[in-house]
Please model this.
Amino acid sequence: MSCGKVDPKCPNCRLSKNRTKVVPGTGPCDAKIVFIGEAPGKDEDLKGQPFVGRAGKILDDALESAGVSRNRVRITNLVKCRPPKNRRPRKDETITCTSLYLDRELQEIAPEVVCALGQTVAKHFVGTRESMSKMVGKESQIIIAGRPTKFIIAYHPAACLYQRKNLSGFRASIRTALVAADMA
Ligand code: SF4
Model:
């Protein structure tokens, strides 16, 4: 079973200009939970895999501390190519890429829970203007493949690299998402 395929030569937005590799999602196609980050970073761009740098280690540690190994969850990004200088993906890039890839990836997997890592991802799905501290850990619903799907917002793990005070909140929100998926 395959899911979330991305054209390795995709030319469909300006992020194609500077990338080294496209970065498709990884993890089972029947995963109960999908974690979605904003965009690949430097390490991910070089390896063609999501969350393999320092932020990925923080996510792995949070999963492990909840007793869940990374290979049981799906990990992916809103956009599949690294934005220059790690800037936020622009709205047109996000709309183009999600309509080509992420929307289909989610429909193919049809998870029970989607966990948004960071504000950009949260806004893409639920358009909230609230601060992250008010949104983190709250459960709402989005529609995927025609059915209501639990939606939980966590900090982006990169936020914990520079503000260690976010680490306990990050881990708690990851655990909340895993509990919602009946995995922790
Ligand atoms: S970000 Fe998405 S739409 Fe843009 S070039 Fe990469 S794969 Fe294609």
